[in-house]
Amino acid sequence: MRTEWKPWQALAGSLAALAIFPLACSPPSETPADLAVVNARVWTGDPERAWADAVAVRGETIEAVGSEAEIRQLIGDRTEVIDAGGGLVTPGFIDTHVHFQVGGFQLSSVQLRDAATPETFTARIRDFAAGLEPGVWITGGDWDHTLWGGELPTRDWIDSVTPDNPVWVNRLDGHMALANSLAIELAGVSRDTAEIEGGAIARRTDGEPAGVLKDNAMALIDRVVPSPDKALVDRALEAAMRHVAAQGVTSVHDMAMGWELEMYERARATGRMATRVYAAVPLASWERLRDLVEERGTGDEWFRFGLLKGFVDGSLGSHTAAFHEPFTDAPEDTGLLIHPPEDLYDWISGADRAQLQVAVHAIGDRAIELLLDTFERVGRENGARDRRFRMEHAQHIAPADVPRFAALGVIASMQPFHAIDDGRWAESVIGPERIRTTYAFRSLIDSGAAVAFGSDWTVAPATPLEGIYAAVTRRTLDGENPGGWVPEQKITVEQALYAYTVEGARASFEEEIKGSLEAGKLADLIVIDRDLTAVPPTEIRDASVVLTVVGGRIVYRAF
Length: 559
Fold this sequence. Notes:
The chain has 18 helices and 26 strands. The strands form four sheets. It has an eight-stranded parallel sheet. The longest helix is centred in the last third of the chain and has 18 residues. Among the domains are: 136 residues, Roll (Urease, subunit C, domain 1), CATH 2.30.40.10; 119 residues, Roll (Diaminopimelate Epimerase, Chain A, domain 1), CATH 3.10.310.70. The two termini are 19 Å apart. A hairpin with a 2-residue loop joins strand 6 and strand 7. The protein is globular, with a radius of gyration of 24 Å. The protein has 559 residues and is an alpha/beta fold.
């Protein structure tokens, strides 16, 4: 007998159960579908047929999308039927910017993101250290100093509570971190340590390190942090996959900036992948990636590589984003460039000649202009082709540069949650004029640019529903902008869905196999407990993902 799940009857007394399933088997030979989702509002992402009522899946792919009557004709005795109860079915979310392994480790690390006072900050680290063996490093954290007024933490805050454990906890944007005295000593950093180009060492009045290191200077501590063993790495990956599955994420673009490809290869070989991954490696290592691709290709629909990630500048919160004009609250400071522009050009040009895809982080208006100029030059010199350059973040765009994205075919890979987070304080840092084209979703889309959405997890939560809420309402987290922060940059729910699905697939050259619900494409889909297009925008963040399907297999269900 087939079973027909009715999630809204079951949800009241149940808790979400997370599970990672092995890869889907070969499609069965029978005509009936393996899985059908009925009684739904299906947003397909297909402009030829944007809406439907039901979906049928056979094996790893979508068999049909259509009316209730059409799909019920494909249901047999062994078909698992999901009654969506009128909820919204969409393609699985594609998070185009995550730090996946870091996220997995962060789930079990000290939690500092919501530490709102220096006392809470110190207490969280003290309590976490109490459960550790001496010598074990404390990492992660994701602290936000703006919550307690903007004062940077120092090693004096935590030395007394961590005498036996090195501490290296990062700000939530990943562009600066705090070390305790033990970590600083192990790294050999002192008053005699020279400043690092593209970085900064916060110092006491006597020249000794105060504890915070920014951007390139962070490597001074990073180099002495021990690497985790394979078992810990694999557990972190599985934790990350479980976590994003519960949020409706079926594919991620991992911007981890390392060469942790073996982690994914082990999971792929043993059937433990529950999330499709497109992995980026450092831009400066483009020749190594070129050789790997020539030897092995670019992977398959579960694990792909061929993407390079670089940096132009830092972040707004760390005052390391590169601007033409000084920060409003720091009139002597215009931010910094992490790499010399000539190096950036050489790496991008070489990678592009090797037919590799390039994604580069740029946040300040000076960094964005520099990167667009570089992309334009490389495209002109290397000749026309479908290269799909990506700009990661593209946060603070000068108005004159908005139309250049569409003109140059540059994908704006953006993270809408940042708008309602940074919007609490960004105007105090860059003033009222520059914020008009900050997180300029509407301006970019109206200009014809391709905008793909992601989270930047762990900098921000890996929750696409919150991202959609942010893009549609722009209501800042502090409740101070009920009508929306820079409201002229709001977009519609369907535009936000498009950025999280269709454009996400296009950003990895995979639009032919995923990103929309069409017959023959991969069966990556989710069920949301309400129609996001029919509820008031302020209720979007209250919605929940109740089912996530990847390759025809249920990897998360809340009933």
